[in-house]
Amino acid sequence: MERKKPSRKRNNTIFVTLCVIPALIAYIVFMIIPTFNIFQMSLFKWSGFSAVKQFVGLDNFNILLRDNNFIRAFQNTVLLLVIVTAITMSFALLLATIMSGHQLKGKSIYRFIIYIPNILSIVVIAAIFSAIYDQNHGLLNSILGLFHLDHWKQMWLGDQKIIIYSIAIAMVWQSVGYYMVMYAASMASIPTSLYESAALDGAPPFKQFFEITLPLIWQNVRNTLTFYIISSINLSFVLVKAMTGGGPDGSSEVLLSYMYKQAYTNSSYGYGMAIGVVIFLFSFILSLIVSKITDRDVLQY
Taking residues 271-280, what's their average pLDDT? Predict the structure, then answer.
């Protein structure tokens, strides 16, 4: 009796399964299990070094609600997310629109220059802006002095009222070029005939942007918006750690920097993991909210 050969569909299924299994195992080992451990350790009082772990239930979360330093770090994180996301996305769309103009000469050079901050190390960017913000010899105060605006000079990284905005500027500078390139690529795929028809109908460039460009690239804007909001939480931690260390007096702390300080500096690992749970839930809920708010029908041309 002749043996039946395996079908091509079955072979494809086996091949895809063998390709997916290693990635699935890595995802479980490096994502699912650590996340589960964070939730587990948030229920214990533990220094991170001692062999003794005391189960305290939800006490760590109760302490969070009364921790003014945590509340301030949470407020700083939300403030950065709102300011940095709004400014970065607005500038990225504006620059992408300008770079997509057919009459602009040297577009490739301009794109490269604007994109450069994105390929620099975050630590390098922190060093650059720390030098710019230096009170005595920094570039910013020197320029203000050059134009006789001495009354505008500030301790940009020493004043509790403005330090979070100084960090926000560094975050915008680092990110705007990356999203400009992404939006410019989406805009390049829009047929020029749509703009030509709109121009014949008397639509000004401003109206063309909101009636043609933005709706047609909205799916890309939506995806990048969700991604950037989450990545900003990580970016703010690195910049704060490298530029200010959370000072002065904790005024520049963000959620991740405060979690790191509690877990690895103050030997309150369980309390730090409770903060980690809050960050995880906050990021997840925020992603759902942004996804819901920005949901709309995809336009095609």
Answer: 93
